[in-house]
Amino acid sequence: MTPIELTDGAVAISGRPILRGVDLRVETGEFVALLGANGSGKSTLVRALTGLRPLAHGQLRLFGTDLDHFDDWQRIGYVPQRAGATSGVPASVWEVVASGRLTRRRLLRRLSRADRAAIDDALEVVGLSDRRRDGVAQLSGGQQQRALIARALAGEPELIFLDEPTAGVDVPNQLALAEALRELKLRGATIVLVTHELGPLAALVDRAVVMRDGRVAYDGAPLTDHEVHDPWLGEPHTHHHHPRQQRHDHAPHVSSPLEGSP
Ligand SMILES: Nc1ncnc2c1ncn2[C@@H]1O[C@H](COP(=O)(O)OP(=O)(O)OP(=O)(O)O)[C@@H](O)[C@H]1O
Question: Can you give the residue ranges of the ABC transporter domain (predicted)?
């Protein structure tokens, strides 16, 4: 089942059009980077794709089911932008990660062995096993970000959205994050990641979707930062072909960071 199929999606906030004519299809196991300038609509698109922001127009299907009928939310993980996410929460790292297991647990049941194993595994993947007893407030910003990612991973989602996970994160933490995402990708997860700059994540990304003024301006092979700013992208692409086709078309001309990798 195709994880995401958005057709002609539009979002308006307080009557102002924010997204228009957005077509986005993401296949199982794809790692898609959502790029674009501040205010271009990346976060709004992710909120629309997770059902948090209603569509004014268009159709969204998640895992083959129309959003109106979709109720399998445990298949989806969402790591929102970090600002304020953990402020004032006197929880331990383990508790934060364990909270991500809630959607899989029956209310008022004790944690099962499977729950505990998933929590341990998530901590391991993001490299925070040794910090499990610490309060989240004791962690650096980058480590807090990893704890939030582990929380999403504890639910064992098949499709995961991450909004700016590397913003304000130092290089060692970016590398740890890239490691965690590589592991997720190896396990077959579908990943949609919002970012300004790919940095160490570039090698993992299969496809770049560049937003501009609430529309998809480019959908295809990942570009280097230099190419994203090239004048030939000045005219928004009208996005007629299938992304795979487009990626193929571009492959010979684009020095993608992926070329030559498996
Ligand atoms: N809750 C809101 N109320 C009013 N306007 C909003 C709201 N959320 C987003 N917008 C507007 O929608 C547009 C797109 O915002 P969005 O956050 O989706 O962009 P973005 O590409 O994610 O940018 P950033 O990188 O700054 O997060 C912006 O003009 C923003 O001001």
Answer: 4-238
Q: Which atom from ligand 1 is nearest to the alpha carbon of 44?
A: 18
3-state SS record for 151-204: HHHHCCCCEEEEECCCCCCCHHHHHHHHHHHHHHHHCCCEEEEECCCCHHHHHH
Pocket test for ligand 1, best of 44, 53, 193 (most atoms within 8 A of CB): 44
Task: Give the residue, by CA position, lying nearest to ligand 1 atom 3.
Answer: 13
The residues spanned by each domain of the chain are 4-220
- pLDDT 10s digits, 65-96: 999 999 888 898 888 776 544 455 467 888 88
* CATH classification code of 4-220: 3.40.50.300
For residue 13, report the distance from its CA to the centre of ligand 1, in Å. Answer: 9
